[in-house]
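Deliverable D5.2: sample structural annotation.
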Amino acid sequence: MSYILDSAISPSEALRRVALGQLDIAQTALSTPPDRHSGVHSTRKCLKRLRSLLVLARPGLPEPIFAHLNDEVTRIARSLAPARDAQALIDAIDKLEKDDQSGENTATPIQSLRGWLQKRRHVAEQNLERSAASDALRGLRALRPAFASLCVYPNDFSPLAKGLKRCYRASRASSGHALLTESAEDLHEWRKGVQHHWRQMQLLTPCQPVDLTSRAEGARALSQILGDDHDIALLVRLISTPTMMFGSPEDTAAFLKRCRKRHKALRREARAHGETLFVEGARSFAKRIDAYWMKAAEKAAAEPRNDNIVAFGELRPNRAG
């Protein structure tokens, strides 16, 4: 099932179709032991898409239902995080080595840190095989009835437009704050909003493919930059921990210098992307997307049906006058 909302049907039905489709993909991916690592990655992506969908629909949902679904999706995602997180940091080390042009000798901390992370990933993968994967599958199955009955009120685009405006406004505000402080925590918080925006643009792309595809691609690129920044911040925290020795003080200092250099470059990129992506005000942005949806819905309603479905009223026999 594609991760897009169909404007030809009611928003509630469109949300249910997407949510159940993501649950199907996640369960299939996690049920394939030969390539469990890839399956975990695919499952976590589905769970992130579900959270973005819930945030979009939140104004039209009873708060207890939103809180329950959001908490359960988050809990399942966290149970699958350790193995993937260790791999992400190994990938970050590989990127640092690939991007480095300084020629400085920092192999010792990098190799030691990579070895430590590989052991950590192995332990996480063992836990995944023992219990985490099966627990997550049970959690995904338990979520299905709630998502199958998901319904927004009113059953039109207005609650989604409100959710879109809230999320965009929060992301825009966290953008300004993160670019001002440049702290790892603030940049990571901004990334969460950017990821929601990226996936919400994917959901709404059929309304205006050219504009919203471009926005989705821009938000995805920004999310990747901020993700790389976060991974390096975690590497810095690890190698700076007093009880963790990955190399000599000289090699460690050189490695940290490379991390600071990479941070600087990534944050320049993030600023340029963010200032472009969030230049529009939240109210204007939400109003524009609402107009896209209404126009797409009107166009879909005007198109002739081609689904071979006979209306109920057409089944009744004609009565004598």
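Annotation notes: The radius of gyration is 23 Å. The first helix runs from residue 11 to 30.
The annotation will be released with the project's public dataset once the embargo ends.
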